[in-house]
């Protein structure tokens, strides 16, 4: 509570506490920036900034406004992931078949400068009311396909223990909700939020997973280690989602150090995100090649569980698309040619005999004897549909393309 009350929200306080002095013309530009995207830094996070070299400091860059945020690049979008369009009720983004994103808080202790939901930061109008949250819970209750609920925001841990407990209890009462996840940056920006009392509450609602958001190895301090230890000791599986940020962590050496420190603290690197196309982030973006280069430096070179999946969240709302270096370099009818992380090129001989099992989705008759409940209910989607035996589809054709519009027999086609 002390940290929240003393968040740094203006330039003068920042200057007073850090001893950094901005020139008058810079102050004007910074003020213009905060008028569009507000400033808030926890005293704890501020203490991580190296004031002697703040211009190159990863924490300064992630927390202090840059006039470059005012640049709107020609490819920038307000809501690049179409979260608002894929929203059946306010607060819910339902993009994937079996899981939803549930925005239960619009506020954060610190405003990350690279926030993908910058459009909503500090916007009083978009703080979800209890009524809105009830409607979200109602949507999940009425949508039996949802087995995984991802609580996000803002930072869900900005809510009080009691309120969180209530939301988690309501969600747990829905029989088809198998897992609940919380996305929070508290272990990074305000580790003291992870109290024993909070962990006691979270523990009641297992299986509960937490993903946090470390971008730089130096953020793993004694205080954040303590927070992670409490969560892990509470039996909560921990993951980390990093964003690849120019000038912050666009370096294989930094990323390797980060993933090593994460696994030492029982946090599994989960995703490495390509910085998305939200407005005002152009100065943070790297080429995709930088991410591939980082993945190249991790895969095979270090423990498999220390390697995150590098993803690009598809502009327009297609969801996360994994990208990685190419390891399958050639292929014939009975051999695949692969290369490993050292550059060794190797041959995998495929079986001379393989009897394919024709799948007609009648699992009860199948010799594989899966005995999976409801296995036949799964319907193939996307490329999976092209691969399966029981569906005659031969191509996936996006709708509404010029090519499709030109077709005169469109109806018969379907
Ligand atoms: C990231 C995301 C999820 C969760 O995706 P996973 O790959 O399961 O972690 C769910 N819904 C939305 C809208 C998302 O952006």
From TrEMBL:
- Alphabetically list the UniProt keywords: 4Fe-4S, Iron, Iron-sulfur, Isomerase, Metal-binding, Pyridoxal phosphate, S-adenosyl-L-methionine
Keyword flag Transcription: no
- Cross-referenced PROSITE patterns, in alphabetical order? RADICAL_SAM (PS51918)
Q: Which family does it belong to?
A: Belongs to the radical SAM superfamily. KamA family.
Q: Which segments constitute the Radical SAM core domain?
A: 94-306
Drop me one GO molecular function for this one: 4 iron, 4 sulfur cluster binding
Q: Which reaction(s) does its UniProt entry say it catalyses?
A: L-lysine = (3S)-3,6-diaminohexanoate
The residues listed in the UniProt record as binding [4Fe-4S] cluster, with positions renumbered to this chain, are: 108, 112, 115
Does the keyword Manganese belong to this entry? no
What is the name attached to this protein's record? L-lysine 2,3-aminomutase
Superkingdom, according to UniProt?
Answer: Archaea
- What does this protein need as cofactor? pyridoxal 5'-phosphate; [4Fe-4S] cluster
């Amino acid at each position: 509570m002390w940290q929240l009350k003393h968040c740094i929200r203006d330039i003068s306080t920042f200057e007073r506490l850090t001893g950094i002095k901005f020139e008058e013309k810079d102050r004007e530009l910074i003020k213009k920036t905060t008028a569009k995207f507000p400033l808030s830094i926890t005293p704890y996070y501020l203490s991580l900034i190296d004031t002697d070299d703040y211009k190159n400091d990863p924490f300064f860059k992630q927390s202090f406004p840059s006039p470059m945020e005012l640049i709107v690049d020609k490819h920038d979008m307000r809501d690049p992931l179409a979260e608002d369009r894929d929203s059946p009720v306010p607060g819910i983004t339902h993009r994937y078949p079996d899981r939803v994103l549930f925005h239960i808080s619009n506020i954060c202790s610190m405003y990350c400068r690279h926030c993908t939901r910058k459009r909503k930061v500090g916007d009083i109008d978009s703080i979800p009311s209890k009524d809105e949250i009830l409607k979200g819970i109602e949507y999940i209750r009425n949508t039996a396909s949802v087995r995984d609920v991802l609580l996000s925001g803002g930072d869900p841990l900005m809510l009080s223990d009691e309120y969180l407990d209530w939301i988690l209890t309501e969600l747990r009462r829905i029989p088809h909700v198998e897992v609940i996840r919380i996305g929070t940056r508290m272990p990074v920006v305000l580790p003291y939020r992870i109290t024993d009392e909070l962990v006691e509450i979270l523990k009641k609602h297992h299986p509960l997973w937490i993903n946090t958001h470390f971008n730089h190895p130096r953020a793993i301090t004694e205080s954040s280690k303590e927070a992670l230890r409490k969560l892990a000791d509470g039996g909560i599986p921990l993951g980390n989602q990093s964003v690849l940020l120019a000038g912050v962590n666009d370096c294989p050496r930094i990323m390797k150090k980060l993933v090593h420190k994460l696994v030492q603290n029982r946090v599994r690197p989960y995703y490495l995100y390509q910085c998305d196309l939200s407005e005002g982030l152009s100065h943070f973006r790297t080429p995709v090649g930088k991410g591939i280069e980082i993945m190249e430096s991790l895969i095979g070179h270090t423990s498999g569980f220390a390697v995150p999946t590098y993803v690009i969240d598809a502009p327009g709302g297609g969801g996360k698309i994994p990208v990685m270096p190419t390891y399958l370099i050639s292929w014939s009818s009975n051999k695949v040619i692969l290369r490993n992380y050292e550059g060794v090129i190797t041959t995998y001989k495929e079986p001379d005999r393989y009897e394919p099992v024709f799948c007609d989705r009648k699992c009860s008759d199948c010799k594989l004897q899966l005995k999976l409940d409801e296995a036949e209910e799964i319907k193939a989607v996307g490329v999976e549909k092209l691969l399966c035996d029981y569906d005659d589809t031969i191509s996936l054709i996006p709708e509404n393309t010029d090519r499709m519009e030109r077709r005169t027999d469109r109806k018969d086609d379907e």
